[in-house]
Amino acid sequence: MPVARSPRPIFLACAVAGLAALSGCTLVTRTMSDGITSVITPYRVEVVQGNVVTREQLAAVKPGTPRSRVRDVLGSPLIADPFHAQRWDYVFVIRRPGTEPQQRSVVVLFDGDNVKSVEAPDLPSELEFVASISRPSRGGEPPKLELTPEERAALPPPPKVEATTAAVEPQGAIRNYPPLEAQ
After folding, report:
1. In terms of C-beta density within 10 A (0-12 exposed, 13-18 middle, 19 or more buried), how is residue 70 classed?
2. Contact, 75 vs 51, CB < 8 A?
3. CA separation for the pair 100, 136 (Å, rounded)
4. What's the pLDDT band for 22 if we cut at 50, 70, 90?
5. At 109, is the secondary structure helix, strand, or coil?
6. Does this model's pTM top 0.85?
């Protein structure tokens, strides 16, 4: 006669395995909340839209300036509405991790082909703008944008290029082709 086994040892083994699994989840959750997620952060995209317009650029755009010069100085407008052809909007938005988000809007109004007026908030200079978008961890000073006269004088002179006495005509392969028309 076969010996009947009790379901108790199998049930007990499953219960112990389930409790071990649940206690492991608690340990993993605690580690995730205290350790890994405090060290590893998700990537945050830098969002930069539009044209940066600085105080120096805006100083070059005065009433009477032609459209082509405005485009050269400020760039193409972000908004050039065909229904409002006499208005160009330069909008700038930047959202960067570690810095405050910035948003500015400059409106250039035209009378024909020349600037009539410019509506702009108090714009930063180039150095102020660079300092405002620099991450705090990079250091205090913004990068240097121009050399001093002493630094320019210390640069080595550019190499001299010798001028050739006679210009050499480029020459390709010489080929003889048969005439296009039959003779």
Report:
1. buried
2. yes
3. 11
4. low
5. strand
6. no
**Angstrom distance (rounded) from CA 93 to CA 91:** 7
Q: What is the pLDDT of residues 30-43, one digit of tens each?
A: 555 566 656 676 77
CA 154, 157, 161: angle at the middle one, nearest 5? Answer: 175
Return the CATH architecture of domain 47-134.
Answer: 2-Layer Sandwich (3.30)
Task: Give the pair of three-digit tokens for residue 22.
Answer: 């649940």
- The DSSP output letter for 33 is I
**DSSP letter string, 51-72:** ----HHHHHT--TT-BHHHHHH
Please give the Cα distance from 43 to 33 (Å, whole number). Answer: 18
All structural domains of the chain with their residue ranges? 47-134
At 27, which helix (H) or strand (E)? helix 8-31
